Amino acid sequence: MEQRFTLITLGVRDLPRSTAFYESLGWRRSVRDAKGVSFFQCGGCAISLFPRSDLAKDAGISEDGSGFSGISLAHNTRTKPEVDTVLAKVAELGAEIVKPATEASWGGYSGYFHDPDGHLWEVAWNPMFQLDDDGNVHLPD
User: Could you tell me the pLDDT band of residue 79, with boundaries at 50, 70 and 90?
Assistant: First the structure.
């Protein structure tokens, strides 16, 4: 298996509401004519929003999972102040701020929010992770 992922699918309870949330963040939908799913290009990979019950059915599992799933998605910013800007924007759109931004033990600055479906996002500025002009992260060796 090659060391990459191409698509992250988030199971959502209300597809139009969740799609509107991400579009309100300034994200632009791709494959706009797709029915029952929303896609967003994110650098070299993509995120899709898909009804939670349909996703569970497709995977052959129960949809009644609860609690911490053991995963978070991360959005790295170009500057430290941008972390606060992003967290303020998502809060304005109804996201729950789980942890306000603070200085991190690893030398950066970050906070967490839940999107409308409870997916955990970290918003972080990491001075050791450089972003190129397209927003792709380049990890140091």
Answer: very high
Q: CA 101, 102, 104: angle at the middle one, nearest 5? A: 120
Of 3.10.180.10, 3.40.50.300, 3.20.20.140, 2.70.50.60, the CATH number of 70-132 is 3.10.180.10
User: Which of 98, 104, 105, 138 has the alpha carbon at shortest distance from 124?
Assistant: 104
How far apart CA 2 and CA 76 sit, in angstroms, is 24
pLDDT at 39: 94
pLDDT of residue 132 exceeding 80, the answer is yes
Q: Which amino acid is at 64?
A: D
Which DSSP string corresponds to 62-112? Answer: -S---S--S--EEEE-SSHHHHHHHHHHHHHTT-EEEEEEEE-TTSSEEEE
Task: Judge contact between 124 and 110, C-beta under 8 A.
Answer: yes
